[in-house]
Amino acid sequence: MSNTFSFEALRRFPDLEADNLVAVDATDRLVLAESGPFVEAADAGQVVVVGDRYGAMALGGVALHGARGVRVHQDSLTGEQALARNAAAAGLADELSQLPLTPELFTGATVVIGQLPKSLDALREIAQLAAADADVSLFLGGRVKHMTHAMNDVLRESFVDVRASLAQQKSRVLVARGPRPAVESGWQPGTAYPLREHHLDLDLWVCAHGAAFAGTKIDIGTRFLLEFLDRMRPAAGTAVDLGCGTGVLASTLARARPRLSVVATDESAAAVSSAVSTVAANGLTERVRVLRDDAMSTLPDGSADLIVCNPPFHLGTSVHSGASVKLFRAAGRVLKPDGQLWTVFNSHLPYRTQLTHAVGPTRIAGHNAKFTVAVSTRSPHDGSAQNWSAQR
Hints:
- By secondary structure, the protein is α/β, with parallel strands linked by helices.
- The chain has helices at 26-41, 56-65, 77-90, 103-106, 120-130, 149-158, 182-185, 220-226, 248-256, 269-281, 322-334, 351-358, 384-391, and strands at 47-50, 70-73, 96-98, 111-115, 137-143, 159-164, 171-179, 195-199, 204-208, 238-242, 261-266, 288-292, 304-309, 314-315, 318-319, 335-346, 362-367, 371-377.
- The protein has a seven-stranded mixed sheet, sandwiched between helices. A seven-stranded mixed sheet has the order 12-11-10-13-16-18-17, with helices on both faces.
- Helix 5 runs parallel beside helix 6 and helix 11 packs parallel to helix 12 (351-358).
């Protein structure tokens, strides 16, 4: 165990940092305290960490409770990168390995710790995969105000014994033990996800892993943006679905324009896996390239004619515009001169000014009772792309 490890040394970078955004919270500490004896009793390779935002649980498990060979899954690419940096700074990188959310992540695990995901489907997918081992104990924590009794019910689908810890500093931990036999719970580990749904109005299959935004539904903002599909730079040869989620916009664009080269990109592992499945389910694998990337960081400057985006306005459970602004700036860099960014957003948000600053002249293409669709054009003589490239 380490006597030098400090939670205060952890950083969110390269994710956004702000006064109301933290790298470690009371939930991280409480999960480690509740699971500590189990982690300390585990052999090498028997501890799994899921949903660790920036490494507090994984590194705390190693430094404070002697965990070795810890397997980690983080949905967020920037979370992975932050953990890698924090682990290197603490000298603990050799004890961690990143794995996708598959049955292999949980094979032989006796302890699973992590943050409770926001969606019940995400929790259900984790619980089903974790429950494959009869000796596993699950410790998932969250802020009390974001927890519901439905979370207990979801865990009981896969585990016999589910209890909640006492609340401390407005956080609580759900503990699940005693996995139910597959014949009793009605599922086979690893087979339920991704879910699939066919939308008759669009003749489109949508596939989704548990943590993917909107699941197999098509959210109303995306539906509104799709109404403008024919007006989106008709002569475009290259397009990017930025923050692609389950790949609805990318798949619809590719099918509507057979000559268009489409990239679907997201920093969420669940989104990328879902988009891969959606693209395949619609027979578009040869037409759409799916990429896990943070704000198109691996795409060249001035390489896209068209970018479509339904941007987020939350960072985890915090309302924060930083995530959207980061995507707008990235679009200003990646668009070719005269290229267009089409976005949809809640009408009360002040995005038009931000889009104009990050990309170029922005006009409102349409609006309804809740959403606004805007189109921003990169000026041939605008230095935005070069400026944003220099600030990366």
